[in-house]
Amino acid sequence: MYPLVRVTLLALLVTLASNAVAQDVSRAVELEQRRQKKISESRPESRPLVEKTLLWMQEKKIQEKLETPGAGFKGIRPKFGGLSTGSGFAFGLQYDRVRMLDGQFDFSMLGAASLIQYQLYQLKFDFPRLANEKAFFSLTGRRRAMPREDYFGPGPNSVKDTRTSYLYEDTTAEIRGGIRPIRWTHIGGGVDWVGINVGTGTDPRFPSTEQLFTEAIAPGVDQQTDFLKYNLSAAVDTRDSQGNPRRGGYYGVNHTIYDDRKLGRYSFQRTEMELQQYIPFSAGHRVIAARFGVSLDDPKTGSRVPFYLQKSLGGSNDLRGFREFRFRDLNQMIGNLEYRWEAWSGLDMAIFADAGKVFADRKEFDFNNLENSYGFGFRFNTAKNVFWRIDLARSREGTRAFLKFENVF
Amino acid sequence: MLVLSRSGEGQVFRSDDPLKIDNDTKRIAKPLRRKINDYYDFLENTFLKPGDRKSVRAVNVNTLGEVPDSSWFTNRIGTIPITPQSLTQAANRGTGPVGPLTIVEGKTQGVTPGFRVQDSKGEVYFIKFDPATNPEMATAAEMISSKFYYALGYNVAEYYIVNFNLEDLKISAEAKVTNELDEQKPLTRQFVEKLLSTIARNSDGSIRAMASKLIPGGIGPFKFYGTRADDGNDLFPHEHRRELRGYYIFCSWLNHDDSRSINTLDAYDEQGFVKHYLLDFGSTLGSGSVIAQKLRPGNEYMWEAGPTFGRLFSLGLWMPGWVSVRYPNYPSLGRIESEFFQPHKWKPEYPNAAFLNMDVEDAFWATRLLMMFTDDDIRLATSTGKLSNPEAEAYLSRILIERRNKIGNYWLRQVSSLDGFLVTDGSLLFEDLLVKYGFEQKRRSHKVSFSAFDNANGNRKDLGGSVETDSTTVSLPASLTTAPENSFFVVTLSANTHATDVFLKRTAGALRIVGVQRK
Questions:
Q1: Torsion of CA A21, A27, A29, A34, to 10 degrees
Q2: Is the overall model pTM greater than 0.80, yes or no?
Q3: Does domain B418-518 have CATH number 3.10.20?
Q4: What value of ipTM does the predicted structure carry?
Q5: What is the pLDDT, as a whole number, of residue A20?
């Protein structure tokens, strides 16, 4: 027999023999062998980078530190946005200490600026939970600089092309207090001192306001003043959540006296009312949300309301098809109607219609000559808050898109 | 693979088949504790489809299609008698915490407020409470569901409903609480009172709570796919374990939408192996832990493209049927019903690899166990929730009975419903579960055929003599009953599109059933 054939036959016999042995291996023994092998190869668990990062953020409580007042890194948190409309991307730092003095006292300090030099500095001493959370009191100091505020001229007939910009700066010392006799009510008041400066706007695309509008048209454009503000407010709030309401309503009135302490030319009183109603159906998966607001100014005899304090209309929170601050006058009314529906648990859709106007004479307080806009929006939300809102709105002046980090109402 | 596999290495049936115990309790080094990130778990399971999604049979079943006892599962109902005492006792090995209770740690984070307490015997428990809007709801749900899961065979903690007065609660001098600012603060009575001011109280002012006994050796949750690289005993991919695939059936029954990794626990046993537990049943039945269960859970994933775009583009004019379901007003139950419930359409919060791999055999295995709970068993387990409203308790029992029946009537039809095979006196005996449980009134006719089976290669040779019968007893031919030792045969019972192969082995002078495969 050739050696090669002998070797092949021998190999075949060995294979058959080993197969026979394998066939005798019981199920339990086979599993035992596999486990023994795995134990010998045991190694620590590995995770994908994304999961590792999220776990690190979870363990270090990064999200909580960014969002929770008093948390942060030794109390300091970054602040993104939150300056006035049109300020552009803003960044700042906030320092909070909360629930001091037996849980009664919160302290916060904030500084923020935007890429186009809007600035905000604020110091607040807050007692929001007095008398078993039935009373509140706060002291606030604030400094703001807003170098590119828009002004289009007074009244409902102002022209889009007469857009100007101005610098608005104010320094405020504010005392506020009030009571919540029952959980869903609020009665409060306050006294503020506000020092205001208005100057040349820095928006290079448009003329500065004083170049286009005189004191006669835009009161206060030449000389600014200091105010003492006295405020009284009351509200009933039955909304199921303030950040993302689906049922209930908000009904508030607010009266403010602006007392010109420096020039004596710009004193006035303002009365505001706001009504919101949320009507759920389909077990809350669809909601009709309605808002109506009115603001009426009453200048003291011989006084005028400065243009920069006149109520405005236009922008992401009221008449959405128009640019921010598009209309200004002594009086303003606005109505919003939204049909919201849940697309999924983290996203509500909305179609909306806005109507409103500004007017100089209270006799025009009617539903004639309303400006209107309409559109649709995406509301990314949690059960309690809308954290990202995209609205697209159309009006006679074109289409506008907004990306906001808060609900509209 | 334990079942009917040759793998080119050995016989189809091994000498120890069918395996009753999968000995996965070999001593190993203690694995590192691992955490699961909620967001990642949601994103991964929703968008990345983790685990092996090949359509393969469960890999940890024995040749009878059953799940052997292991560190994951212990056969109880259907294997050992479930007495009223064993059903209500479940995993509990004592009488629960013995007062006074001393808080040793507080918890303000997570879905529900709670404490870690030590009783007078030094045992440690976690205690959780009911929301003020739904007294008894979460504690009853946790209690009742734990009884069922234990009887079904899963490892669960010891759960006890306790009542105590706030003033009887002691606070350890060393007790700390980690607040939402991630600060560890001494736990004060004032803090405890404030935390407990938002929870439900009994009519006499006392507090009802759920006390779950600490499982020692916890090393974090298990995932519903893959295996742990640092646990040598963990051999079978979790997405192909029958008790995890079939867990879907039980979750659908109990509306356990929160049946995800975060509510499981691997614990390193003192004997040196990892034992796998199900935890936290607060979001079962009609409970959503801190609120009555919402309408969506159980009906739709948190994110599901089809319904989302349907609602989005229809301007919300189209809404799924679950939005319109009406529930009776039982605050202690939350929201659970049986009319709208469709067993095969039920969904957890987000996709689960093991659930998605469930095949009709997995479903049959689980449904068979579920159907073993009698109406009285269900009423008895429901009574452990100690619901003060007898109407609510009766309603819940009725709903669970109806949901059980719906599950049985659906899943037992997806594969051959024959079961309970037994060889005696030269005959093969069996029962039809559809008839047994009243889903069919009449026994169906079956074609019965006989084959010789070559255990070395899996080949079959028809022996002839096939018969058509509607009886549940089939006389076996002499060629089977007088065959030589170690001969293998297959009896195939076919009806409509389904068939069952029953594998017999002649051993010790008798025919023994060594395998069952349903098609």
A1: 100
A2: yes
A3: no
A4: 0.89
A5: 42
